[in-house]
Design goal:
The structure is a single chain. The chain is an alpha/beta fold. Helix content is 45%, strand content 14%. The chain has ten helices and nine strands. The strands form three sheets. A four-stranded mixed beta sheet has the order 1-5-6-7. Strands 2-3-4 form a three-stranded antiparallel beta sheet, covered by helices on one side. The protein is globular, with a radius of gyration of 19 Å.
C-alpha cells in the first residue's frame, strides 16, 4: 500500500506514464500513493488515469464547486473472493453484530475521552469514561448519542450545535469525508459490500459499513479541528490552506495493539480484524486508539 497522500489544488493536467503519476511537471510513483485529493475543477485527466489509479488501489477524491469532497473513486475488482466475503456479511448473527457495535462505541468513547484529556479537559474526559462503562451489547441505551451531546459542547463550546452552519462544522465534515473515503476503499479492497452495515442500515446509504467503522476515528478529526480552530476565526471560510491542513490528518499516527500506525494502516488493521471476527464468529476487532497528534515518520 502507498504512503503518500497528495492534495491537488492548482494543477492543470494529471496523466500517467511509465507507472508515474504526472501532475503538470511533477512526477510521483503511483505505487507510493495512498490517496489523491483533486480540488481544482479545472484539472484535466482521462478515464485511463482513473482506471489505472483504481487498479493500484489509490483512493481518489473529487471536490464540488465549494471545494468540498463529494465523490470518491473506489476499486471494485480488488478481491478474488467477493462472494465469499459477502456471504460472511449476510450470515453474521445478530448477537455478533451487537457485540461488534458495542466494541466500536466503547472505542469511540475511549477516544473521545482521550481527545478531551489531550486538550486539558480532565473533567470532561472523566465524564466520558463514566459513560463508556454503561455501553451495553448493541448500545441498547444509546450511550453514544448521550456522549456526543456532552462531548461536542466540551470541545467546541457550550453554544456549539453539530448540525449548524459554521466553520467548525465545515471542517469536521471535510475531515470526516476524507477518513470515510479511505475506510470505504479498504472495505471494498477486502471484498466487502460497503452498503451492508453493522449498525447503520439506511437503504439510501451506499456506505453504511464505512459509517460504522469511522466512529473510532472521528475523535482524531475532532482533535485536529480543535487545534486548527485555535488559529482561525469562526467567521472565516473553509480556505484552501485550512483544507490542506485537514487533509494532512491522514498522515497522523494512531495506536493499534500498542504500536503506532499511520491512519491508513490503522484502517487496514481494523478492517482485517473485522474479517477475523466474521471468519471466527467471535468479536475480535482491534479499533485504533487516539494519541497526541504527530505525523508518521518512516525510518
Amino acid at each position: 500500500m502507498g504512503y503518500r497522500n497528495l492534495f491537488i489544488a492548482n494543477a492543470k493536467r494529471i496523466s500517467v506514464k511509465n507507472r508515474q503519476l504526472l501532475i503538470d511537471d511533477v512526477s510521483v510513483p503511483v505505487e507510493d500513493i495512498c490517496s489523491l485529493m483533486i480540488e481544482n475543477q479545472s484539472t484535466l485527466f482521462s478515464a485511463f488515469v482513473l482506471q489505472y489509479l483504481a487498479e493500484q488501489g489509490v483512493v481518489v477524491y473529487v471536490c464540488d464547486s465549494k471545494h468540498t469532497p463529494n465523490a470518491v473513486l473506489l476499486p471494485l475488482n480488488s478481491h478474488s473472493r467477493h462472494l465469499k466475503m459477502l456471504r460472511y456479511q449476510i450470515e453474521i448473527s445478530k448477537v455478533l453484530q451487537k457485540r461488534i457495535w458495542q466494541k466500536i462505541v466503547i472505542s469511540k468513547l475511549e477516544n473521545q475521552s482521550r481527545c478531551l484529556g489531550l486538550i486539558d479537559d480532565s473533567d470532561g474526559a472523566k465524564h466520558i469514561k463514566m459513560l463508556q462503562k454503561k455501553v451495553l451489547s448493541g448500545d441498547s441505551k444509546n450511550i453514544e448519542a448521550q456522549a456526543a451531546a456532552y462531548y461536542f459542547k466540551r470541545i467546541y463550546g457550550k453554544h456549539f450545535i453539530r448540525s449548524g452552519e459554521s466553520l467548525t462544522n465545515a471542517m469536521l465534515n471535510y475531515g470526516y469525508s476524507i477518513v470515510r473515503g479511505m475506510i470505504a476503499r479498504s472495505i471494498v479492497c477486502h471484498g466487502y459490500e460497503p452498503s451492508l452495515g453493522i449498525f447503520h442500515k439506511s437503504e439510501l446509504n451506499s456506505f453504511n459499513l464505512a459509517d460504522d467503522f469511522i466512529e473510532p476515528f472521528r475523535p482524531l478529526v475532532d482533535l485536529v479541528v480543535h487545534q486548527l480552530m485555535q488559529s482561525v476565526e469562526e467567521e472565516q471560510h473553509l480556505t484552501p490552506g485550512i483544507k490542506q491542513e485537514l487533509f494532512r490528518l491522514v498522515n497522523y499516527d494512531m495506536e493499534v495493539g500498542n504500536q503506532k500506525q499511520i491512519v491508513s494502516n490503522a484502517i487496514e488493521l481494523f478492517v482485517e480484524s473485522y474479517s477475523k471476527s466474521l471468519r471466527d464468529n467471535a468479536e475480535s476487532i482491534t479499533p485504533p486508539v487516539l494519541i497526541a497528534l504527530k505525523e508518521h515518520s518512516y525510518e
